[in-house]
Amino acid sequence: MRTVADAAAEILAAIRVLESEAVPLRDALGRVLAADVASPVDLPPWDNSSMDGYAVRAADVAGATRGRPAALAVIGTIAAGARGERPVGPGQAYRIMTGAPLPAGADGVIRVEDTDGAIERVQVFDDRDAGRNVRPRGEDLAAGAVAVPGGTRLGPAHLGVLASVGCAAVAVGRRPRVAILATGDELVDVDRFDEVRRGERIVTSNSYALEALVRAVGGEPVPLGLVRDDPAALRERLAGAPPADLLLTSGGISVGAFDHTRRVLGELGAELAFWRVKVRPGAPLGFGRWRGAPWIGLPGNPVSTMVTFELFARPALRRMQGMTRVFPVPVPVRVAERVTTAAALTHFFRAVVAPGADGVLEARLTGPQGSGLLTSMARANALLVVPEERRVVEAGETLGAVMLGDEAMLGEAVAP
Ligand code: AMP
Ligand code: MG
């Protein structure tokens, strides 16, 4: 049995980065930038004012106070987008707006609040801004510098930066196509919920959770539907599947009499690289290659499916899109209650992480940890990681937690 780290590394080593495609900048949110983008210009492109006020020479305002103001001749007004035509000479000033280019001769901007705001002859009441409030050219980004590194998953700030360096379109990793097959005689799709009401079947919730997980990481789900625990049916469905960059199967991967996934894939020519990982939930994980693409066999229990997706499929899908950093960094959290494990496996417990009374992050388990308890996954914002060798963890000890989702920690109060 492989450790979680070894299994994850082996899967990642088998992943190749997909080709890139150009998309309009507005459509690039959440996509992964294919290569470094350098700025062709200095940003800001000119020395400019960070205040509404008066562009002056420091020497002309030195020692100015309310009692002994400095008086300067205003030789014009520079709006953002305009330019001061004349240099500022001794005893002169320009009225200037935020973002407007600093005129030649001036070395600072006096905020308007420290003046009488006059248009022809201004009185300056304070010299605290002498030589200040200038944003130098290239302060944000020098021409030639990397604006956004390749491998970055693009968020709103990245789109803003890319726009400011002239990218109307960007090259991003293609969306991985992820085939998803659910297996199990006990399952129906939600349109057959009357059978669930009659107590005969359960809904294939994994189909929905997995499609959503694939979308959330930037992939394109290719649903292969639901298939019975029948080798012939499984073979037929897989053989007829459209090509994909990754195959995810759910269920039928354990040691039950009706667990056929591994054997049928093998008969169809798949190479099985490994089966079983020292993890709970999700031990019967399978991995291999089929038709030139990786296959990850996720155990069917709904929590096992989701946890093993986090550990193994999400990093693989990140890498396919070109991300370089793909594994979550566990956050240190104080365990709020005693935690025990029943086997020498790395455990991932569903937990709610939030600051405790002293401000330190604290993890509380969502309750019982059965791998069929999907509602606990819906309540969790983190997976508390209990290493294999820790069979008992006392309340107050510190462990790592993998935070889940973009909105992992939200509250009702407005931040102070
Ligand atoms: P398996 O991995 O096929 O042995 O399934 C383990 C458990 O997960 C069983 O209780 C199944 O009913 C449940 N299960 C398997 N596949 C799904 C699915 N697609 N949606 C919801 N539950 C499932
Ligand atoms: Mg099954």
Topology (SSEs and partners):
Blueprint: H1 4-13, E1 20-24, E2 37-38, E3 48-49, E4 53-56, H2 58-61, E5 70-78, E6 92-96, E7 108-111, E8 121-124, E9 134-135, E10 146-148, H3 156-164, E11 169-173, E12 177-183, E13 187-188, H4 193-197, E14 202-203, H5 205-216, E15 220-227, H6 231-239, E16 246-250, H7 261-267, E17 271-275, E18 279-280, E19 286-290, E20 293-298, H8 302-320, E21 331-335, E22 339-340, E23 346-355, E24 361-365, H9 374-379, E25 382-386, E26 392-393, E27 398-403
Parallel strand pairs: 5-6, 12-15, 12-16, 13-14, 16-20, 18-23, 21-24
Antiparallel strand pairs: 1-11, 2-10, 3-9, 4-6, 4-7, 5-8, 17-19, 19-20, 21-27, 22-26, 23-24, 23-25, 25-27
Helix pairs in contact: 1-8, 5-8, 6-7
Bound molecules: adenosine monophosphate and magnesium ion (MG).
